[in-house]
Amino acid sequence: AVSACEKGARWATALGLLAEMARRGVEENAVTYSAVASACEKGALWRLAIGVLGATAWRGVDANTVTFNAAASACEKGSQWPLALRLLTALHGRRLNADVFTYGAAISACEKCERWDSALGLLATMQGELVATDTVACSAAISACEKGSQASQALKLLRTMVMVRVARDAFSYCAAMTACEKAEKWPVALEVLGEMVDEGIAKDLFTYSAAISACEARGQWFLALEYLGAMAMDTIEASTVTLCATIAACEQGAHWQPALEVLDKMSKVSIHKDVVAYSSTIGSCKEGGQWRRISELLHGLRGAGLQPDIAVYTAAMVARLRRARRAQALSLLAEIRARCIPLLSGIDLPTVA
User: Which residues contact residue 60 at a Cβ distance below 8 angstroms, ignoring those fewer than 6 apart?
Assistant: First the structure.
């Protein structure tokens, strides 16, 4: 009955059954406590899972590795990395052997809290104890490095996975690509994507987002559009992030036509167009000298109930001046001042003011 509660994540019922067993004098064992702790873990109730593990001591039940794993996994879900590490120490103190699940939960807890150094330390300990590493543990460590802005370490781990014959998945690659993007190593990020394609690993939304973001940073607008097309071929729905990054890539290359097409696509697929999307599109039109279109986009932005940012205001004022509409440019400048928005550094508008 307790095992059934574990599978259904019915933690309250599992705790009730455990209490009933104690009341009736039914013998309890590690399997029972492991099932109850696991039910609490599935409910992301780390405090209760720790409590169940603690109860084994005063009830005279020898907890096993599975019991500790359930508690460690609950701590991981609750982002309680110090507790996960303490459980690992306690497990060794009871002369139990930690397995790949114990270490995986502890490393994932460190990843959630951006403790990349602790994650790498656990991975090294894991290898030192001859515990076989797996994709989950390595990917979590790579993600921890990504969140800690440790691109070199993330790439090193990705390469090491090949050497120790651990399969790399979409999450491993995506975390490494994002780490490269954050470190402005955009060519390397695209190289990692190439490796992923060569291995025949199916790409997901997060992979495409990382790849398109790398294209945005390098101004590779054509490649960004190709990836956007590939997403459609893979029947992966584009997100606000991927579409905005594609528009930003077009802006850097001063390619206003594809930027407008992507913005229009956002309406067709019912994706919310935010200020960033409008701002990047207006920026691409500014670079392309499309003054009338800037005015139209500003009108659309306001119609969507959005407030322009300083980049939009600046482009719109330049557009007004280029079309000999000084009064409208002055009106925008007055609006900026009324909203107390500071002008961009280096912007000089003597012909307006």
Answer: none
Cα–Cα nearest to 299, from 319, 269, 322, 271: 319
Q: Rounded to 5 degrees, what are φ and ψ at 82? A: -60, -40
215 neighbors 245 (Cβ within 8 angstroms): yes
Residue at token pair 């009341």: 23
Question: Over the Cα atoms of the chain, what is R_g?
Answer: 27
Rounded Cα distance between 291 and 287, Å, is 10
Its pTM stands at: 0.71
Residue 2's contacts (CB-CB under 8 Å, 6 or more residues apart) are 14, 17, 18, 32, 35, 36, 39
Q: In terms of C-beta density within 10 A (0-12 exposed, 13-18 middle, 19 or more buried), how is residue 175 classed?
A: buried
Count of alpha carbons within 13 angstroms of residue 151, beta-carbon side? 14
For the chain, what percentages of helix, strand and coil (3-state, to nearest 5) are there? 70, 0, 30
What does each of the 353 residues of the chain score in pLDDT, given as a tens digit?
455 555 555 667 766 776 777 777 677 778 887 888 888 887 778 888 888 888 887 777 888 898 898 888 888 888 888 888 888 888 988 888 899 999 999 999 899 888 999 999 999 999 888 888 899 999 999 999 999 999 999 999 999 999 989 999 999 999 999 899 888 888 898 889 889 988 888 888 888 888 888 888 777 888 889 988 888 888 898 888 899 999 988 888 778 999 999 999 888 888 888 888 998 999 888 888 888 888 889 889 988 888 888 888 888 777 777 766 777 767 777 777 777 666 554 444 445 44
Residue ranges in 202-255 assigned as alpha helix (H): 205-218, 221-233, 240-252
At 37, list the tokens.
């702790």
Location of structure tokens 């996975």: 161
3-state secondary structure of 97: coil
